[in-house]
Amino acid sequence: MKDQGLLDKIDLHLIRVLNTVLTERSVSKAAFRLGMHQPAVSAALRRLRELAGDPLLVRSGSGMVPTDAGLRMIAPSAHILRDAEMLFSSARSFDAATSTERFRLTASDYLDPLFLPMLVSQIKMQAPHTRIDLRSLSNEANYLTELSEGRTDIVIGNWASPPDELHMGRLFDDEVVCLVSKDHPANRRGWTLDDWLGAEHIAPTPTHPGAKGFIDEHLASLGLGRQVVVRCPYFGLIPAMVASSLLVLTTGRQYCERFTAQLPVNILPCPLSFPRMMYYQLWHERTHASASGRWLRERIKGVAQSLGPDTQTAP
User: Partners of 280 in the beta sheet?
Assistant: First the structure.
């Protein structure tokens, strides 16, 4: 770059001194406004004169006036200072009412089916000019890479052990239950652990190759296995499949309860004790200090907290 050597000698402090001296037309007044000693301002002015190859400020009668070159520098220097202030203030604050930010969310559809609609509604109500990209947490998505590369801002889902290299905020936990058709024999006679393990189960497609999912990971830790006969990548469609078959869905109570009034299904206790399902939002160090990132995480946390009496948020 032709003027790289010149640019290397200029810093924002010099631009501030330049603008103040030219607008005040006085070294002493500029020093007072800047909170500097007058000799320091004079030294900065000498550097500016050398860089510009122009006196910038000259005597006229009892005062001082900018030269032609100095006059031409007033507006650009003010513009640079305003841009610099905006550059850093935008990182420290977020104005939801005027922001045009694009939020990128990757979420599991194992969530309460009301969660994402409520979240989108809240974001658009409070930040009407923002854009929202929603992506499914599927077996095709490498969410660790997407978070680190900025292709997604937050990932929402349930993990027994979330990755240590990401920041984590707990959203809620949920009791593990079974969803079955009202015609399922277990409604009448109940079931033992052997009955449940031998039943025909439906389960979501794993989020990545080799993953077992929350239920099957816990069973494997106990040396047990169930009979999964249907794997479905569309979790929101599974309750309808359960309603018209003898398939068993084992998942969180909060999710199942959203369908008992819509479909001919019942919730049954699971004959095996499971840890509670834990739902988190995960984000990368890249967005940890971002004002807009903090705002978005608070909205997510608030929606999670509002969904039902069993919802628990963590600090």
Answer: 157, 170
Q: What size, in residues, is the chain?
A: 315
- Rounded (10°) angle between helices 38-52 and 27-34: 110
For 195-238, write each residue's pLDDT tens digit: 999 999 999 887 665 667 889 999 999 999 999 999 998 888 99
CB 176 within 8 A of CB 276: yes
The C-alpha atoms of residue 104 and residue 121 are separated, in whole angstroms, by 15
**DSSP symbol at 248:** B
Q: How many Cβ atoms sit within 10 Å of the Cβ of residue 166?
A: 18
The DSSP H or E segment spanning 132 is: strand 131-136
CATH class of the domain defined by 176-275 = alpha beta
User: Does CATH place domain 102-173+278-306 in 3.40.190.10?
Assistant: yes
Angstrom distance (rounded) from CA 247 to CA 180: 7
CA angle in degrees (0–180, nearest 5) for 83-89-90: 90
Q: CA–CA separation, 116 vs 275, rounded Å?
A: 25
pLDDT in tens, 166-183: 999 999 899 999 999 999
